[in-house]
């Protein structure tokens, strides 16, 4: 007997199923998800949690004409499977394969590209306004969850949407019970009632009558809010101007479909609170949803991951350093914007819970929160991905750098990030940071240097950043001893002729390999700011060609800093800047991506030899 899932190539086919068949479809979809992700790696817990919700949305709404805007794009695997990409899941996050996040260029059903969080309500509101201006009955639905409601942008959008007469539905996928645990038969019943036509008609009729008696109208409004507030947590969202419904069980298809069908007929801003369980239906993920948030390949029968390389990752190096440093200094505070596991703060959080702060998906707040601590004598260390630091640029400049506050930034995932693709690549941090006054920027070339640079940053009396790549380095031994490096000093790692390669961070290893072929001098520059001007001058005077190499966009990056320094010194030595091109680089295998950018040893040799022949 063929499986139901095999017959679904589009939501149109899904909508032809009998409602009673959807329960079997959900089971098949969940089983497919586990087996598929076990072979490709990717996000698992969050996707298992939205299986029923995804089915219900496509069953009720006329997608893609009706717009579904998914927040925190890593909860869209079921959506991809039901919209014609089931077979493509075997190539998920692989070169030329489908992305791990929604992409408008990939499918008409991906109405808005997402990778960062808390953008869905703003985008869906924009689409709702566009439909309104075009005179269309098209519906716009924002599905927000996985902590995205902790971000200020979501509330900015709610505030705007609630004041507008547009047909928008916001669905809060509350998958960690962060707002309310009141899910059960009573709440499901109330949701059906509050979203139904009878209640809505009575409410509107009552409003018309009471509008002529303002004091009574106000009393009735407050009485309604009081009654609803006793059994639902919707008062906040009602105050924003939304009609709040829920919370309902996000794994009960019958309740979901009935409620969504009712809401689809309502006008104006609607808010549906859905409670789901991350990892639902797969026991290992239910037991440890954080572990299975983002996974590599694993055995679906037991959830065990395949063997790792055995080398410490840069994230683990940071984790070890943070605990060691905290044992020496009680002033140290660890801060992360909802990336405790990914940024390596778990061990610190367990060892020093009173000094650990996960502020939620609120990068702007994280930085200003750290600034306030630094003002009064604490030593905050902000662990953050490069791509997420972009979201708090104003706070970095205005609240930290301008006041020259001693905040340490441990910037993870710098450079290309492989399978997660352009939304998560740390391609720009050197460019957008080095133009800021007062900051020290360090780029470790290996794991031990990363540890020493973190210590250097911590000793510095001003803002400092250590940016390091995803994954492991060269596998060097890591010294438990910590010693501050002289700020702004490079080191010569190889002496050669004609060509001097100035390598920043992770690019030192391929630079040294290329230098063996070219007989080139290699400098481990270590610091992007302050730049070692003396070393730049000496090497420029002694060599025919200066080559800079970095895992950052060439435009405005470390290479640009070297060229600016040479210009200021009046040096006319030929230069060649190697780095990431002026484009968004698609997802793939990290090593292959670097090679395609010419940032492996062979690419470096080829680029230099071509430049020398000009």
Walk me through this protein's architecture.
This protein is of the alpha/beta class and 614 residues long. Helices cover 41% and strands 15% of the residues. The protein has a 7-stranded mixed sheet with strand order 9-8-10-11-13-12-17, sandwiched between helices. A 5-stranded parallel sheet has the order 2-3-4-6-5, with helices on both faces. It has a 5-stranded mixed sheet with strand order 14-16-15-18-19, with helices on both faces. The radius of gyration is 27 Å and the shape is globular. It starts with 10 loop residues before the first helix and ends with a helix. The relative contact order is 0.08.
Number of DSSP helices? 25
Give the biggest beta sheet: 7 strands, mixed
Chain-averaged pLDDT: 90
Helix content: 40-55%
Strand order of the largest sheet: 9-8-10-11-13-12-17
Topology:
Elements: H1 11-14, H2 22-40, E1 42-43, H3 45-48, H4 51-60, E2 67-70, H5 77-85, H6 120-134, E3 140-145, H7 152-162, E4 168-174, H8 185-195, H9 197-210, H10 214-231, H11 235-239, E5 243-249, H12 253-264, E6 270-275, H13 283-287, E7 294-295, H14 314-328, E8 332-336, H15 346-351, E9 356-358, H16 363-375, E10 379-385, H17 386-389, H18 393-401, E11 408-412, H19 429-433, E12 440-442, H20 447-459, E13 464-467, E14 491-494, E15 499-503, H21 508-518, E16 521-524, E17 527-529, H22 533-542, E18 545-553, H23 558-569, E19 574-580, H24 590-596, H25 601-612
Parallel strand pairs: 2-3, 3-4, 4-6, 5-6, 8-9, 8-10, 10-11, 11-13, 12-13, 15-16, 15-18, 18-19
Antiparallel strand pairs: 1-7, 12-17, 14-16
Helix pairs in contact: 4-12, 6-7, 8-12, 14-20, 16-18, 21-25, 22-23
């Amino acid at each position: 007997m063929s499986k139901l899932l095999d017959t679904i190539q589009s939501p149109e086919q899904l909508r032809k199923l009998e409602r009673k068949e959807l329960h079997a479809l959900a089971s098949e979809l969940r089983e497919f998800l586990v087996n598929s992700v076990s072979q490709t790696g990717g996000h698992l817990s969050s996707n298992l949690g939205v299986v029923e919700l995804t089915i219900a949305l496509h069953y009720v709404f006329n997608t893609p004409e009706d717009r579904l805007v998914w927040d925190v794009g890593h909860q869209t695997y079921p959506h991809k499977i039901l919209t014609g990409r089931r077979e493509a899941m075997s190539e998920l996050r692989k070169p030329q394969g489908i992305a791990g996040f929604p992409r408008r260029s990939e499918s008409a059903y991906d109405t808005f590209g997402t990778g960062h969080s808390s953008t869905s309500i703003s985008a869906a509101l924009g689409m709702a306004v566009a439909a309104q201006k075009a005179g269309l009955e098209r519906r716009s639905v924002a599905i927000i969850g996985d902590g995205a409601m902790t971000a200020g942008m979501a509330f900015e959008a709610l505030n705007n949407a609630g004041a507008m007469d547009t047909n928008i539905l916001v669905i809060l996928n509350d998958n960690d019970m962060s707002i309310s645990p009141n899910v059960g038969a009573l709440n499901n019943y109330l949701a059906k009632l509050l979203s139904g036509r009878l209640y809505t008609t009575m409410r509107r009729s009552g409003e018309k009558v009471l509008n002529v008696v303002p004091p009574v109208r106000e009393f009735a409004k407050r009485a309604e809010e009081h009654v609803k507030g006793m059994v639902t947590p919707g008062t906040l969202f009602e105050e924003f101007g939304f009609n709040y419904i829920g919370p309902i069980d996000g794994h009960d298809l019958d309740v979901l479909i009935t409620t969504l069908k009712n809401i689809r007929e309502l006008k104006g801003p609607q808010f549906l609170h859905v409670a789901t369980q991350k990892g639902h239906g797969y026991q290992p993920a239910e037991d440890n949803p954080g572990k299975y948030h983002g996974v590599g390949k694993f055995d679906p029968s037991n959830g065990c991951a395949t063997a790792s390389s055995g080398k410490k990752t840069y994230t683990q190096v940071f984790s070890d350093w943070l605990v060691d440093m905290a044992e020496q200094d009680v002033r140290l505070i660890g801060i992360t914007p909802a990336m405790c596991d990914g940024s390596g703060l778990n061990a610190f959080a367990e060892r020093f819970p009173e000094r650990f702060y996960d502020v939620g998906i609120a990068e702007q707040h994280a930085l200003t929160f750290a600034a306030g601590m630094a003002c009064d004598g604490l030593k905050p260390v902000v662990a953050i991905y490069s791509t997420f630091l972009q979201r708090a640029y104003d706070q970095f400049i205005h609240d930290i750098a301008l006041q020259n506050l001693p905040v340490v930034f441990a910037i993870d995932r710098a450079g290309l990030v492989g399978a997660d693709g352009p939304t998560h690549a740390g391609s720009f941090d050197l460019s957008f940071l080095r133009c800021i006054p007062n900051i020290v920027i360090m780029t470790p070339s290996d794991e031990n240097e990363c540890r020493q640079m973190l210590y250097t940053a911590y000793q510095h009396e001003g803002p400092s950043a250590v940016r390091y790549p995803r994954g492991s380095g060269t596998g060097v031994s890591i010294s438990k001893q910590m010693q501050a490096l002289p700020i702004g000093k490079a080191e010569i790692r190889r002496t050669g002729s004609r060509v001097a390669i100035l390598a920043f961070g992770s690019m030192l290893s391929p630079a040294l390999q290329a230098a063996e072929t070219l007989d080139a001098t290699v400098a481990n520059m270590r610091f992007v700011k302050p730049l070692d001007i003396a070393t730049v001058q000496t090497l420029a005077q002694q060599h025919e060609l200066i080559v800079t190499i970095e895992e950052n966009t060439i435009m405005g990056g470390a290479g640009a800093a070297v060229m600016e320094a040479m210009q200021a010194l009046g040096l006319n030595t030929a230069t060649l800047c190697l780095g990431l091109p002026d484009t968004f680089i698609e997802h793939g295998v990290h090593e292959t991506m670097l090679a395609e950018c010419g940032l492996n040893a062979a690419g470096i040799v080829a680029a230099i030899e071509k430049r020398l022949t000009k």
